[in-house]
């Protein structure tokens, strides 16, 4: 069986469904495929999302943003001696399941053919252009192929190296995350107000979090850097639950997996192919929040895809504006956050606690982690030379990291507007140099 479409999208999550719907509504034939059953694709999953991302992606309608507001965020040091409280943060807790279900319905209404329980084998490539996919249901040819399969990155695994998209990502650029939703015991004292989120930072290159929901439940989660010797995040969650009497025994929901936490790929397009969501590394590097980046990415991808299809040019050059627009609007800040991530993941728990106690990691830094927006200007000078841990004062290392983060953000905002090989090669080389410096700090 071989069918032809204008666009084939692999991955029917929120990003894939949104992109499919927007492209199909402009009159193009779209096939959306996923290996999972629809009930699994749309299973309930709470996500913390920036309200701005929901609005930018055009999916805020139908979501009760006020009742889902994060009323306060408390960031707590590993030794629990220091906490930083932020109120009125522009974040919302949403259930990904109903949103994905709604987006799939909208895709079908727009004419998208949705094919679930379909296993994709590989991208089909002819003379440097993606031309379709092979699956256990046959081959499907297309003018444009969209990779939205998340961490699996099924279309990237075997593409030719010359297409410019990496096949594999570094293991240490991932975290293993796990979260449980449980009922709170209402008669227990000291339960925080609904809408409160607490982050315990600096544990195993990641963090632990709790979210006290309006319906009397609690989300308990952890994320640890995916490196050798890291603990199982499920054990961390279980240990927290057992030490917290207000948390009930029954597990209402459990979700886990690996998430890429690095800056966006240097290019998210190739000839006849585009990437979005986790496949393109669009999650926020420090505190995850992959849904916001994926939705904004899908919205921008669809706009570029429609223009390219209408112009009859789905080459990397014809799709390049997606790269430029995403880097300028969001990717630059995510790359800056990646600098902060590399610094913080090198800290021991004792060092992390010291940094928070001495306000090296302060309210501004926590706000940047939460909102994904690099605040203020690079430091004008080093605050002090108080000796921290190791051979270099920690506050000096942090100030240098923040200077570099601003430099990285500026570089990503100068992303080439069009695909010119020499200019992009120079930009890429400079980006690599900057992150080599980040690794050394």
In helices, the fraction of residues equals 25-40%
CATH architecture of the largest domain: 3-Layer(bba) Sandwich
Evaluate the radius of gyration. Answer: 22 Å
Distance between the termini: 54 Å
For the record, the CATH class of the largest domain is: Alpha Beta
- What is the subunit organization of this protein? single chain
Sheet with the most strands? Answer: 8 strands, mixed
Spell out the CATH superfamily of the largest domain.
FAD/NAD(P)-binding domain
- Class from helix and strand fractions: alpha/beta
Shape: globular
Mean pLDDT rating: 91
How many β-strand runs? 17
The total count of helices amounts to: 11
Domain module count = 3
Q: Unreliable runs, pLDDT <50, ≥5 residues?
A: none
Labels describing this entry:
441 residues; alpha/beta; FAD/NAD(P)-binding domain; D-Amino Acid Oxidase, Chain A, domain 2; 3 domains; 8-stranded mixed sheet; 7-stranded mixed sheet; 11 helices; 17 strands; 35% helix
